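We emphasize that the prediction below concerns an isolated chain of 469 residues; any contacts that depend on oligomerization or on bound cofactors are therefore not represented. The input was used exactly as deposited, without trimming of termini.
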Amino acid sequence: MKKSFGATLVSLAVLVLVGVGLYFWAYYPAQQRESQSEQSESELRLAQGDSDTDVSVAIGEENKKAGETISGNRSQKMGALPSEDGNRRKNPEDETGQSSEEKVSKGSAQGEDKKTGNLSMEDENRQGNSFQAEGSGGTENPAEEEANHQTQQPQGATLVYTGDIYLSQHIQNNYDNYGILGVVSENLLAEMKGGDIAMANQEFPFSTGGVKAPDKQFNFRVEPSYTKILTEMGIDVVGLANNHALDYGAEALIDTFEALDDAKIAYVGAGNDKARAMQPCIIEAGQQRFGFLAASRVIPEIGWNVENKQPGMLCTYDSRLLCQAIQEAKKDCDFLTVYVHWGIEKSNIPEAYQTQLAHQYIDAGADLVIGSHPHVLQGIEYYNGKPIVYSLGNYIFNQEIIATALLKVQVVPGKAPVLQLLASYASGAKTQEMNSEQAAELYRQIESISYAVAIGEDGIVQPLTYSGS
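Result of the prediction step, given as a token string:
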């Protein structure tokens, strides 16, 4: 009996040992492998940004830091927006009085602007916190991206043009008594000075000397100190190619060059020699280069042509010389204006040669052709998408002007220029804007003598079709 009991105990001990051995041989290693597999899977989910409960605890601090950085960027974006004049204006939602840059600097170091070639904070967020971009759809601000894209593009510019200007004794008297607002109204003055570049046809010499040209019905001459009228109106460049520039001979024309140089007003269309008369004026505005040329097809005698006698003016009875000047000028500018003295006085309809010449100028490279000399307004045409304003009439002359217009041209790179007429008249030697009813009537009249254009109540000129190929 005792032997049997002892044998039983030995058997049980053997069974226990065998069971323990089997456990360590098979079950325990499998459990270890499963545990290791789960750990590897958890690490993989963490690396991929998995949002399961156990992983979110691990990356909670990372999300918090990323959120602070992104919030800082948004604060920076919304802190100041570009105003229309290019300055920065404070965002109305920012009521703390503290600049966005100051608030961002407290949370994290602000990156350099993209233009410097270094990474900005937004670039770093996209690269260093990609899991946040994948999970939330990114941190892009479409409105700001569009604004940034626009600021990288060349800006638009506003060009302002007047018709014939003659500072007659009536104009001088008004200026002497009332200043510049005795010559033009406050609104028109603001429009002229508000443009980036203003151009006019100067229909007289600045001089007190010279000899009066014989056999002329009208001879004009203005004391040089009155260049201040042009300066105060914001005139940047004048055309001198017309039938009055040499009213008092070469001496007065040379005086004119000197007076304009002293007043820092550029001139085109005349010069001491042919090269100077063909030379364009180039002015930079809105990240663009604007060129200006002038020529005349109206002179009282052949000696006024710079090719025949010098000093003199560039003439365009034959278009070849002006077209050559246009081709050369276009190489150095983005937008070229050609201002031409032509046509028949008091006629609202351009002569056939005006249309022929205007098309040749555009084919040579002109972007805008403007005419003067008729002393009245003529129509508008678009040729190959380029505008031709056949005559702007008188802008400042004697006491009365029944109808005239200040021309504004908005030039934006890659787009067709937008023309706007500001209907005006002169009374008592002061040029001023028309009321809305008078302006609407004038726009209808100009539209009726134009070529496939519509003019809105605001004076905006809209081409209906383009002539030419």
